[in-house]
Amino acid sequence: MPKSNPGIVFMGTPEFAVASLEAILRAGYPVKGVVTSPDKPSGRGLQMHPSPVKRFALKHKLPVLQPLKLKDDTFLGTLHNLKANLQVVVAFRMLPEEVWSMPPLGTFNLHASLLPQYRGAAPINWAVINGETRTGVTTFFINHEIDKGSIIYREETPIGADESAGDVHDRLMILGAQLVVKTISDIANGTVVPVEQHKLGIAEPLNPAPKIFRNDCRINWNHGVRKLHDFIRGLSPYPAAWAEMIADSGEPIIFKIFAAKPVIKDHQLSTGSIISDNKNYMSIAVSDGFINIQIIQMQGKRQMPVHEFLRGFTINESHKFI
Predict the structure, then answer these.
(1) Residue 56's closest CA among 48, 47, 67, 64?
(2) Does a structural domain hold residue 262?
(3) At what angle do helices 15-26 and 165-189 cross, to 10 degrees?
(4) Average pLDDT, stretch 42-70?
(5) What pLDDT does residue 319 have?
(6) Which residues have C-beta within 8 Å of that of residue 219, sequence separation ≥ 6?
(7) Which of 116, 146, 152, 303 would staple 197 via disulfide (CB 3.0–4.6 Å)?
(8) pTM of the model
(9) pLDDT, tens digit, 9 for 90 and up, residues 138-182
């Protein structure tokens, strides 16, 4: 049995964080409050929508705080009055010291990488884009520097050669939830021995994981097959790799590509050339082979398998990806 059953404030926003909050409740830990992002306009009519964490919290009748500014005196006072012993952060924003230093047992974060590798906002995407064969989740105590606090635990998992960022996301979401509960339990028992990141003895260069913007997602067909394959799956399903195709009119059409198969093969075609039977397959020529498109979306249309796309779009010799 734990020496204490710490009252917890949970902080998070997206679906990835919901799994951890649910695991905390299932484990029987009292959640005194949930901090999440303010509701945002989206969809037709730009109606206000709550975050996945808020929806889950309200369903389970948990108090919800949605501060615009984390240094706001009213928010800080309300947070203090919850009298939490421990704060747990999963996929939230950077916390000021006034917040992370508040509870007596500290504030820990779940990060979707094997820290110190892939510090930053998009660790899952960048690990897949870079062709990593392994990744994982890390819990660490938050300090003044982003993703640089002392590590509590790390849990590793492989990345399959054809897995997308979405596949890895879903597995890390569950793995992370389990690690969060283990971390809470051992903090409550007083058995954790945090390790400063620079003492882990990792000599290899550290890869960053900065936020990904739209221009970062444009496909450069001058890269080789393997790099392109990793790029496409590393951005799938979101935010999605995109490219421009020159059509009959000469005007480019924007496409998103969600899944593709790499084929290494010698050929004499120019980069970006398209080979298709206009029924079942569509291949893009690159320097050392072909990218066989599997799932595609034309601008203004829905996402669909390539054979379905070809029923309504005919490829001819004038078409080329640029």
Answers:
(1) 64
(2) yes
(3) 30
(4) 92
(5) 93
(6) 228, 231, 232, 241, 242, 243, 257, 321
(7) 116
(8) 0.94
(9) 999 999 999 999 999 999 999 999 999 999 999 999 999 999 999
As a three-state string, the secondary structure of 143-163 is CCCCCCCCEEEEEEEECCCCC
Place of tokens 């938050």: 142
Give the CATH number, domain containing residue 301. 3.10.25.10
Distance in angstroms (rounded) separating the CA atoms of residues 304 and 243: 16
User: 195 and 91: one domain?
Assistant: yes
User: Domain check: are 156 and 32 in the same one?
Assistant: yes
> Burial level of 112, CB count in 10 A (0-12/13-18/19+)?
buried
Q: Per-residue pLDDT for 234 more than 50?
A: yes
Q: Are residues 45 and 179 in the same domain?
A: yes
Residue 228 lies in a domain: yes
pLDDT at 160: 97
Tell whether the model's pLDDT for residue 2 goes beyond 50.
no
pLDDT band at 1 (very low <50, low <70, confident <90, very high): very low
**Same domain flag for 28 and 148:** yes
pLDDT, position 183: 98
Give the chain's domain count: 2
DSSP characters over 5-67: ---EEEEE-SHHHHHHHHHHHHTT--EEEEE-PPPEEETGGGEEE--HHHHHHHHTT--EE--
Q: Domain with 38 in it: what CATH number?
A: 3.40.50.170
C-beta of residue 164 within 8 angstroms of C-beta of residue 124? no
Residues 195, 218 within the same domain: no
Decide if 302 is inside a domain: yes
Query: How far, CA to CA in Å, does 172 sit from each of 67, 112, 123, 179?
Result: 28, 7, 11, 10
Q: Token pair 């909050």 is at which residue?
A: 21
Q: Which amino acid is it at 39?
A: D
Asked if 162 and 233 count as a contact pair (C-beta separation under 8 A), the reply is yes
What pLDDT does 4 receive? Answer: 63
Residue 53 has pLDDT above 70, yes or no: yes
Distance from C-alpha of 151 to C-alpha of 200, rounded to nearest angstrom: 9
